[in-house]
Design a protein that fits this description.
74 residues, mainly alpha, 3 helices, 55% helix
Length: 74
């Protein structure tokens, strides 16, 4: 997947990857459509952090989820 170009399809791909990596119990509540391409760079940063680590600590997961919450469309 080429993530160098902002698109809704790439947003959806990254959100699905993040949800899978974080093994979020509330993953169903985090829909890709709740995130705008306007926040693409921030989402890409979160995606790279989430996918770049074999194992995330609880504090890392909490920080990533907090950032995702901040980026959701209101």
């Amino acid at each position: 997947m080429d993530l160098s170009q902002p698109s809704q399809a790439n947003v959806e791909y990254m959100i699905e990857g993040i949800k899978s990596k974080l093994k979020m119990a509330s993953a169903a509540a985090m829909q890709a459509s709740a995130f705008s391409v306007d926040n693409y760079e921030d989402l890409l940063d979160i995606y790279e952090v989430a996918m770049g680590s074999d194992k995330l600590s609880i504090s890392q997961v909490e920080a990533l989820v907090s950032e995702l919450g901040r980026l959701r469309k209101s």
